[in-house]
Recover the amino acids of this structure.
């Protein structure tokens, strides 16, 4: 299948091209905004936000830029192991929600031993790549936030879903509880698309709450015994 290549630019936190020394404060909020908006207006698909041991935090720079743009994506560089994968997953998932589905992660294992050691990483190259493989595996396992619905047996767990749904509908009929919304988040839109295919996906993914409230409020649910979920 032919795919149109993406145009990817970059964001710096202050003016610092190769033709003259860096100018201004290390973090120039107004410059970040201008840089991001210039890429968006020029039709770029994404901008890379680089990682460096002496550079500003890439996720925070991307978050600031995302507030001033509406379409362009952010490919945020990230080095494994400096942040626990569970925390990194939450940070990137939060950025993706705040930016309307515009966040992507660029995982780098490190190309300079000296640069790595500035952040306290003394692993050799092969060890770094092995760590990256494990780290990305963990990131993917955590790619979603789930609401567990548990029971001592499968039947008991599914019985709870019926009670939850009944209570939610009763509350909404009285004017309480979260109302159904039209999500802007790409992730929520995908969840609603999955929910339209049936109340249960695979063996344990329960979609009825997500369908009822527009896939918001952490409405993805896994149902079963604790060891199954």
């Amino acid at each position: 299948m032919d795919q149109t290549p993406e145009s990817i630019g970059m964001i710096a936190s202050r003016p610092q091209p190769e033709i003259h020394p860096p100018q201004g404060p290390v973090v120039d909020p107004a410059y970040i905004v201008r840089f991001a908006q210039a890429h968006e207006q020029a039709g770029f698909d994404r901008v890379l936000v680089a990682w460096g041991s002496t550079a500003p935090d890439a996720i925070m720079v991307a978050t600031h830029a995302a507030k001033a743009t509406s379409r362009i994506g952010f490919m945020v560089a990230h080095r494994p192991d400096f942040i626990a994968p569970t925390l990194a997953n939450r940070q990137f998932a939060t950025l993706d929600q705040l930016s309307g589905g515009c966040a992507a992660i660029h995982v780098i294992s490190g190309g300079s031993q000296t640069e790595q050691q500035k952040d306290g990483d003394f692993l050799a190259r092969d060890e770094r790549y092995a760590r990256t493989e494990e780290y990305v595996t963990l990131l993917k396992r955590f790619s979603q936030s789930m609401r567990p619905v548990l029971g001592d047996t499968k039947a008991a767990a599914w019985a709870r879903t019926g009670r939850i749904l009944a209570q939610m509908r009763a509350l909404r009929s009285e004017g309480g509880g979260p109302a159904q919304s039209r999500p802007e988040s790409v992730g929520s839109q995908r969840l609603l698309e999955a929910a339209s295919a049936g109340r249960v996906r695979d063996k344990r993914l329960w979609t009825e709450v997500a369908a009822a409230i527009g896939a918001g409020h952490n409405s993805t649910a896994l149902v079963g015994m604790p060891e199954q979920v």
Remarks:
- The chain is about 40% helix and 15% strand.
- The helical segments are 29-41, 58-66, 85-98, 113-118, 125-141, 154-173, 186-195, 208-213.
- The longest strand covers residues 73-78.
